[in-house]
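Bug #77: duplicate submission created two jobs. Keeping one. Sequence:
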Amino acid sequence: MRRRYENAKERWRVLRSTSGFKNAMLFLIFVIVSAVFWFILALNDSAQDHFNVNIRIVNQPDSVTFISDVPERLHVSVSDKGTNLWRNGYLKHPTINIDFKEYAGDGILKYSYNDLISSLRESFGGSALITSVSLDSLQLSYTTNPGKKVPILVNCQVFPSSGTTLEGSVKASPGSVTVYGTKEVLDTIHYVSTEPVVLRDINETTVMEVKVSKLSKARAIPAKVVLTVPIEPLVQKQALITVDTENVPEGEELLLFPSKVPVEYYVAMSRLNDDEDSNIKLVVNYNDVHATHNGKLPISTRKFPDRLKNLRLKTDSVEYAIVKD
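Kept job's structure:
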């Protein structure tokens, strides 16, 4: 390894002593100097470019909440010497500071086109020519009312993939927002919904951020909430359910053979150990006695919870006997 290092060092010493190497280095120095002079001359030429200018509201009282959306930035085209554009547009972040106390009153902050141009010239320098601005003015509504807390209504349709289920409801966090506006407007708002969301073929619990729906003449804070969509796999479960009777005349009794029948259904994994038997109601109707001729009565499912999926009777009829008192 040391010999290789010594050989490389010797080759480099020989290369540096050649006239070709010296000429190449001299040429490279001239190229760098020329590039520097060209860059300086180019910056002294007039140029035009596009910039994002930040917008800040300063001296805003804590009691004030803007109802209108306050733009974070505006887009401008500026012509000036390259050196000025480089200094004012690239090396610093141009910003417009709007003094709330100077431009706000009677629930509206007004900032005219002339105000925008004046602030932009102050930011980019007096020699700059503002050729275009993405905003022609600002008129921002605000309120000093403390606001009204209202619940969030989740507007979400969920279609789980095969073999899974929505276990419970979709939850929003936070579950409420504060709405700001005039008293007359706030009196008409009792809840705020999320923007509509449709989820298809999801097979696991999903957490996502969604926007709150826009309000007319009011603003909700926060403007976004987090939705939790609880998805669980389905597992099969079986049970023996007692079959009840209905419409049996007074003085008679309807005996069923068997009195319990097996059912099969699917339930969310977290509910596998829940006792659901009492929530399933199976019946036979005495009035069907005259409509059947095989000595059996059909079983009907009167009720079962929505959380039980694909409920199926493994026996669809039972034998019976009528006993009179």
